[in-house]
């Protein structure tokens, strides 16, 4: 097999260069002289993730398609910590990406099964409040392009970044309780009735019809027993304030002919 470099990274102070080779070895080089210093052995498949520690020049992280995550001391050429991403009943999960936190106390990885793995010191209590499966209901909705070649959501015909904040659902598209919906930016202060998504039946690519979240629950304005939506209330409030300002401006305007070029004054 012809050796090929799959990934390369400098350490924090640029004194060392680490290369990942397709024979599953990591090689540590002196960046000034080009001298090979260490061969790091441990991976059993190709490595596409090399991350240097944000301030400790000795530390380098590697992760690969074999499910292995290593923390190396590249100055000594030794293994400091090892984790194998074994998934019960499914074998191992290939690790696709890793990043250190700015303070160097944590790092997060994503794998081929859609999992987010968070490593660090201390307890995992802050993460226990979130469900195991978390997706946005818009994650796999089809997109189209308009006449200007702009991307639109196929169902709503809106640009994705202009759509309301999405709902959190599980892997089957079932919405999570309202306490989880408040974790979505933009929904923190919504009332419970505005955190209940509208469900509908959607045909999958296999022709199977499944119940999924299709959007924000809307309130029938003709039904006096239901409270209008927050957005509608805000629009009405803004319109009312504008009407009040306009009325005050007219009352405070001086009597007599106007030249038509003056600007309105507040009362």
UniProtKB/TrEMBL annotation:
InterPro entries: Bromo_WD_repeat, WD40/YVTN_repeat-like_dom_sf, WD40_repeat_CS, WD40_repeat_dom_sf, WD40_rpt. GO terms for cellular component: nucleus. The keyword Repeat applies. WD repeats lie at residues 1-39, 40-82. GO terms for biological process: cytoskeleton organization; regulation of cell shape; regulation of transcription by RNA polymerase II. Residues 239-267 are annotated as: Disordered. Pfam families: WD40. PROSITE patterns: WD_REPEATS_1, WD_REPEATS_2, WD_REPEATS_REGION. Residues 249-261 have a biased composition (Polar residues). It comes from the Eukaryota. This is BRWD1 protein. Keywords: Repeat, WD repeat.
